[in-house]
Amino acid sequence: MNAGTIGLIAAAVVVVLLAMAAIKIVPQYERGVIFRLGRLIGAKGPGLFLIIPIVDRIFRVSLRTVTMDIPSPGRHHQRQRRVRVAVGR
Questions:
Q1: How buried is 57 (Cβ within 10 angstroms: 0-12 exposed, 13-18 middle, 19+ buried)?
Q2: Which pLDDT tens digit goes with each residue over 49-67?
């Protein structure tokens, strides 16, 4: 193998790595917010899109609804004792 062949293989490897870093896939329940050099470009997705690997940064934002149970706070009685209050269901 001569120097030209090694250089060609190295260049091909670099191109493949850059292509892998540039292609982004965002699922249906997420959006990708893109910043270029720290400035907001916009929200993209869902789907497949390209970014500039070194210049752009992508942050994924989930659009799924998060539900949590909130415990009953209770009420204070005349003598400031804590009294449990049943929440109707």
A1: middle
A2: 999 999 999 999 999 998 8
Strands 47-50 and 39-44, sheet pairing? unpaired
How far apart are alpha carbons 19 and 26 in whole angstroms?
16
- End-to-end alpha-carbon separation of the chain, Å? 77
Burial of 56 per CB tally in 10 Å (0-12, 13-18, 19+): middle
Question: Are 32 and 24 contacting, i.e. CB atoms less than 8 angstroms apart?
Answer: yes
Both tokens assigned to 88 = 């109707």
State pLDDT tens for residues 1-43. 788 899 999 999 999 999 999 999 999 999 999 999 999 999 9
* φ and ψ of 48, to 5 deg: -105, 130
Query: How far is CA 78 from each of CA 36, 63, 75, 81, 87, rounded to the nearest angstrom?
Result: 60, 45, 10, 7, 21
